Amino acid sequence: MKERTPVTMSTIAYAPVHSSAHAGILHRSRRDFLVAGVLGGIAETYGWNSNLLRMAFILSFLIPGPQAILYFFAWYFMPEA
């Protein structure tokens, strides 16, 4: 099994990562992850900047809601790329 290395602030790419093998298929990212690759996979699928998506997710905790529960469900149900 390939060893995964987490994304750090010094290795974050600002351009979206496009993978032709997973284009349009929702998946957890193996390359762009900080916790489980859920937000990195969403960013890869839709061509979004993963850092902006992560910041939006963190800011969403200022609004009451089930954000953490949804993240854990996505972690469980989304296939790894």
From TrEMBL:
Transport keyword on record: no
Locations listed in the record: Cell membrane
Transmembrane parts of this sequence: 56-78
Keyword Membrane appears in the UniProt entry: yes
Entries under Pfam families matching the protein: PspC (PF04024)
Entry keyword set: Cell membrane, Membrane, Transmembrane, Transmembrane helix
Topology term for the membrane: Single-pass membrane protein
Domain Phage shock protein PspC N-terminal per the UniProt entry, residue ranges: 26-81
Listed InterPro entries: Phageshock_PspC_N, PspC
Signal sequence bounds: none
Entry's Gene Ontology cellular component terms: plasma membrane
Top-level taxon in the UniProt lineage: Bacteria
Name listed for the protein in its UniProt record: Phage shock protein C (PspC) family protein
Species assigned in the record: Corynebacterium spheniscorum
